[in-house]
Amino acid sequence: MRSNGASALLNAFQGLKISACTPLRQLRAPIQHQSKVLSAALLQNGRAFSTSPAMMGTWLEPSLNRKKKMAKGRPRVATGGSTKGTTVIWGDYGLRMVDHHRRISAKSLKMAEDTIKVRLRGEKYRLYKRKCCNVGVYVSGNEMRMGKGKGSFDHWATRMAVSQVLFEIKGRIHEQIVRDAFRLAGNKLPGQWEFVKKGDAPVVGITKLDGITLEDLKRPRKQLAPQELIEVSTSTTTAEVGSTSTPPSS
User: Fold this and answer.
1) Which one of 55, 91, 134, 212 has the fewest CB atoms closer than 10 angstroms to its CB?
2) In Å, how far are 27, 43, 165 from 39, measured between CA atoms?
3) Which CATH superfamily hosts domain 93-138+150-208?
4) What does the pLDDT read at residue 54?
5) Angle at 136 between CA 51 and CA 193, to 5 degrees
6) Which of 126, 128, 133, 131 is closest to 85 using CA atoms?
7) Rounded CA gap, 87 and 159, in Å?
């Protein structure tokens, strides 16, 4: 009886026996393969910047201390050979300032953005903002009482330099529709604006590098005479200075 009971108990334990577990390397292999495929796809279709939304603040109102006084400042106009911010980078079309540098308030930027979105309603596109409002404007002058101090906070603004791109658009959308949207947005913004496309020539100050290079701009504008003419003129001047005229004999 005991032998039969022991065999039955042994058979029951053998039925509950767990199958041999697979090695950890075999379990990690498909996971590593999937991760390599995913990383390759991300590198192939990845973007040049992070697309994660900002946790604090927006492009119209940053997460900065309003009580801290800020300098008024002026937009820096790149005239020493820099073309930063004057070409379309991420999108296919852009809106660029052409007249003069200035400060643009967040209210004007929001109005221009809403105008573009209303005009392009129903289209498949993506709008890129190249500037952010990180300058605090404070009430001063005749808008406050006389005395010391800079005044209270009024609104956020951004410094917009001449020939800089403000908006960019990319998507399956016709060029004329984008032109019309940017035209309406430019009417809501101060200053004069132009429509640019990806691949257009960059700008240094107000000079477009269309057919010329930075080296051509850095060369002296005064045309120098050839070396042969300089030598001839130098020898002629020396002869005239060293020559003596004798009066005719009577």
Assistant:
1) 55
2) 19, 6, 32
3) Ribosomal protein L16/L10 (3.90.1170.10)
4) 47
5) 65
6) 131
7) 18
Residue 73 — φ and ψ, nearest 5°? 70, 165
Q: Which of 166, 168, 169, 136 is nearest to 153 (CA)?
A: 136
Q: Which residue would you say has higher pLDDT here, 250 or 58?
A: 58
Contacts of 95 (CB under 8 A, 6+ apart): 165, 166, 167, 168, 182, 185, 186, 193, 194, 195, 196
Ranges of each domain in the chain: 93-138+150-208
Q: Which residues contact 206 (CB under 8 A, 6 or more apart)?
A: 98, 162, 163
Cα torsion through 83, 89, 92, 95, rounded to 10: -50
Q: Which residue has the tokens 């199958």?
A: 19
Token pair 């603004």 in the structure block, residue: 157
This prediction's pTM: 0.62
Report DSSP state, residue 77. Answer: P
Average pLDDT of the residues in 213-223: 74
Confidence of residue 184 (pLDDT cuts 50, 70, 90): very high
Both tokens of residue 101? Answer: 């540098």
Helices (H), 153-226: 175-188, 214-218
- Tally Cβ neighbours within 10 Å of residue 158: 22
